[in-house]
Amino acid sequence: MEKRTILVADDETHILNVLTLKLQNAGFEVIAAEDGADAYELARSHKPDLIITDYQMPMLSGVELCCKLRSDAQTRDIPAILLTARGFKISENDMKLGNIKHVISKPFSPREILACVVGHLDEMAVGT
Questions:
Q1: Tell me: the pLDDT tens digits for 74-107?
Q2: Omega into 107 within 30° of 0, i.e. cis?
Q3: Burial (CB count within 10 angstroms: exposed 0-12, middle 13-18, buried 19+), residue 128
Q4: pLDDT at 86
Q5: Which of 11, 28, 103, 118 is deepest in the core (most CB within 10 A)?
Q6: How far is it, in rounded angstroms, from Cα 4 to Cα 59?
């Protein structure tokens, strides 16, 4: 079976490193970006199975990134998990427009993220 690819986008280096290590140890290929613009280009060139993105990032916010990906024929079907600081609310409309499947508040457990990734990818596999 081919390795599943996850794109992680976060401007906080320690979060990027923790998530990358956790996902790689679980057998995923991980692509990392430190801002929304880089994440967009990496998503277009690598077509990951799933994106984990921070809400607040330079260049494009996580919601802007997801909506831009959703409007691009090459990337429209890539689902996303959005990480956000406590208190930030994401509207149902933004979630739908950006194909955002889950919103997880910071601070989070890397195990929680991994469980969410695995659960969502398993749902996708059953749906195909």
A1: 999 999 999 988 666 777 877 787 888 888 888 8
A2: yes
A3: exposed
A4: 65
A5: 28
A6: 27
Label each residue of the chain as H, E or C.
CCCCEEEEECCCHHHHHHHHHHHHHCCCEEEEECCHHHHHHHHHHHCCCEEEEECCCCCCCHHHHHHHHHCCCCCCCCCEEEEEECCCCCCHHHHHHCCEEEEEEECCCHHHHHHHHHHHHHHHHHHC
Separation between Cα atoms, residue 94 and residue 110, nearest integer Å:
25
pLDDT of residue 97: 75
28: alpha, beta or left? (left if phi > 0; alpha if psi -120 to 50) = beta
In angstroms, rounded to a whole number, what is the distance separating the alpha carbons of residues 32 and 61?
15
CB atoms within 10 A of CB 1: 4
* Domain 5-123: assigned CATH number: 3.40.50.2300
Residues in the chain: 128
